[in-house]
Amino acid sequence: MLSQKKKSxxxxxxxxxxxxxxxxxxxYEHRKxxxxxxxxxxxxxxxxxxxxxxxxxxxxxxxxxxxxxILAQTMNKNDFELIIVDDCSTDNTLDIISKKIESxxxxxxxxxxxxxxxxxxxxxxxxxxxxxxxxxxxxGDDWLPSDALExxxxxxxxxxxxxxxxxxxxxxxxxxxxxxxxxxKIAYNKVxxxxxxxxxxxxxxxxxxxxxxxxxxxNIRFPEMIFGEDLQFFAEVFFNTKNISTTQDxxxxxxxxxxxxxxVKSEASTVLNRIKWQNEAYRYLTKKYKNNKIxxxxxxxxxxxxxxxxxxxxxxxxxxxxxxxxxxxxxxxxIDNDFNSLDYADDTLNQHALxxxxxxxxxxxxxxxxxxxxxxxxxxxxxxxxxxxVYKENKYKKRMHIILQKIIKKDENIFLKLYSKxxxxxxxxxxxxxxxxxxTVLEIKKHLFKTGEYTVQFKANELSKGKLALxxxxxxxxxxxxxxxxxxxxxxxxxxxxxxxxx
Length: 503
Hints:
Elements: H1 4-17, E1 26-29, E2 35-42, E3 50-56, H2 63-71, E4 80-86, H3 93-100, E5 107-112, H4 120-129, E6 134-137, H5 148-159, E7 163-172, E8 176-178, E9 188-192, E10 208-211, H6 212-217, H7 229-239, E11 243-256, H8 258-264, H9 271-289, H10 295-312, H11 315-319, H12 321-336, H13 348-359, H14 362-373, E12 381-383, E13 386-391, E14 394-397, E15 402-410, E16 413-419, E17 425-432, E18 439-443, E19 445-446, E20 453-459, E21 466-474, E22 479-483, E23 490-492, E24 498-502
Parallel strand pairs: 3-4, 3-6, 4-5, 7-11, 15-22
Antiparallel strand pairs: 1-2, 2-5, 6-10, 7-8, 7-10, 9-11, 12-13, 13-14, 15-16, 16-20, 17-18, 17-21, 19-20, 21-22, 21-24, 23-24
C-alpha cells in the first residue's frame, strides 16, 4: 500500500505525463516539496522550443498586458509553452490569468498552497515544470516586444550558444531608460565571457534566454533569499556557460511606472539589508566557484559596481557609515581570504577607496567620498598628455578623458578626430536622449603611427532626429563623454560634453 507522500508523487508524475488534465484547484505535492494547486493545464504538442516562466503575486493591474505581449509573439504559439506560478495572490490576478491563459496552446497555471515570501520558490517550481529546450523568465508586470522570442531563439540556434541576451527598455511614467549592461550595446554572434571584464555587470532575469539543460544538469536554482537571489542564480549560469550571443535589439520591456514601483517597494528594501543578502550570495559563489576561469569578472563587479559605484560613492553612505562600513569590510575580508581585492579595482581612485574601507578611518572616508562626488568640477592635473585627479596632493589617473581635436563635416559625412592617452578607445555610441534604446555603436579607428589619436566617422542622415548623446567606450566597455567646444550642429551639455542635433 502506497504512503500518502508516495501517492502524491505518483499523481504529480501522472500530471507531468498528461498536461491536458485541467484540474479544478486540486492539490499536488511537487517532488521538490512544494505544495501546489493546478488551476489550468493544456498541451497540443510534446516538444517546445521555449518555456516562458512567469511568477506572479498581486499583478492584477499589469498581468493582462504581459500575457497579451506573449500572445503577440511572431513565434508560433505551438512552439512555446507558458508556465505561470502564482504565489497566493489576494487580488484578481488568478481570475484574469484563468480567462486569458486559454488563448495559449501549451500552458500550465499553478498556485502555491501558501505564500512563499520569496521570489525563489515560484521561479524554481516553474523551472522544474518546464519542458522547453530553452527558458526565458518574464515578470508578471513587464512585457515583450513582438519579436523577442524569435530573436533570442534564432541567436541561440544559429550561433550554437547556451545563452542569449539583448537590450532591456525601462519604461517610467515620464521617461524611457535602458539597462546599462555593456554587452547589450554590441551585437556578438558568439563571444567568450572571459573576454569582457564587465560580463557580470548585469545579473537579472530580464531580457535573456538560456538553454534549460545548463540550469537543470548543474542543479542551478534561485536561493530562498529576500534579495540577491538573481545575482546568485545568473552568476551560476554564467559560470557554467562559455559563450553567449548578444543583440542590440530591445528584447524586454521593464515596467517602472510610478504605480508599479509603489507596489513593489518593501520595508525590508534598505541598503543595509540588500548588501547583507548580497554578501551571502558572494560567500556562496566564492566557496563554489573561486577556481573558475571567469571568477575574476565577478570580483570586478562586486568591488567596482556593487560596493563602490552602487553604495560607497553616495551621500547615503556618509549618512549611514556606522552601519554600512562594517558590512563592506566583511565583504572585502571574504574576498581577501582567497584574492587581493586591490587587484580588481578599475582605477587608482577605487584602489584608494578600498584601502580607506579596510583601514576604517571614518573621517578620512567621509572626506574622500565628498571629494569623489565633486571631482569632475575641479581642474585636472596634466602630465605627459595624461589627465589626473588631485586629492590631498596625491594624483589619481582619470580612467577615461577624451578630447575632441577636430570635426570635419562634408555633406552628410561627419568625421571626429579624438585624442586620449588615458585609455584605449574602442567604440563611439550615439544615442537619442529622449529614447536611449534608439542608438548606434561605431568602431573607432586608432592612428597607426601617432599614439593617442583616433578617428570615427558617421552619416548624419542615418541618425534619429533630435538631441543625440555621444559616448566613447574603451576596450573594457567603460564609457565617457567627449569634451568639446560648440561646432556645426554639435552642442555642449552642462558639463561641456559633446552632443549632436539631427535636424
